[in-house]
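sorry for the late reply, my laptop died twice this morning and i had to redo everyting from scratch. anyway the thing you sent over, i finally got around to it. pasting the sequence first so we're on the same page, its 239 residues, then the predicted structure underneath. double check i copied it right bc i was rushing
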Amino acid sequence: MEEFNIDIAHVLQNRDFSIIQKLKSYYSNIQTKIAAKVEDATTYKIEFIEKKTQNDNKISELQQEVESLKSEIDATDLQQKIVDKKIANIIEEQENLEEEVNKTKSRRNSLSIEIVELNEESKKRKEEKLLKWKSIKCACQTYKQYLDFRIRLINNKEQEQIKVSFFINDTNIKDEYFVLLLNHNDQWKVEKIHPTLKTEHLTDFKEIIDFSKQVEISNIIAFLCKLRHIFLQYYLNIK
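ok and here's the structure:
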């Protein structure tokens, strides 16, 4: 803001009261600038509050999803304890029946088969528990960086399928940008990317995955971030 110097002695001696008009103009200019600053600050505050409210709502939703996954894990733990108890009871019963092996051979064979089945079920539940823990960690890290991700778990018999949808907050392009991933023995592979990437854009993933060989993804978080960036830069505005 410019400075305004007044020689009071000069004004009084020469009765030059034109300075009053200059003071009025100067004061009016100051008021205009202050009003503009106040309006800018008010607009910024309103936008900040709206953005913060949106982020708070999204964080609340994510926390609910995490709590839901934790509840599923707790349920899995309970089922695991039940299975372990069943195995312990069957083994105890099998040991007691060994004294009458000639009379109970058929029963023992049946119990042995049941133990194998229960052990397989126990192993499967342990694997599901580990996968769910990894899903929680992955979801937390990803959502913290990009609030418009959505991860959906699709269980298959031999492997796990994950669908990651991008830009879900934009209803005009809902579910148009996504990737299907397969997880088998803790190894991630790409099953499908929609929309299909152009060949020149596949090279951007060279440090993460070699699409020509379709090998495992070295860093799943880096892959998702890179894919979102490419969608945003090359594909989002051309549809």
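The radius of gyration is 34 Å.
thats about all i looked at so far, will dig more tmrw
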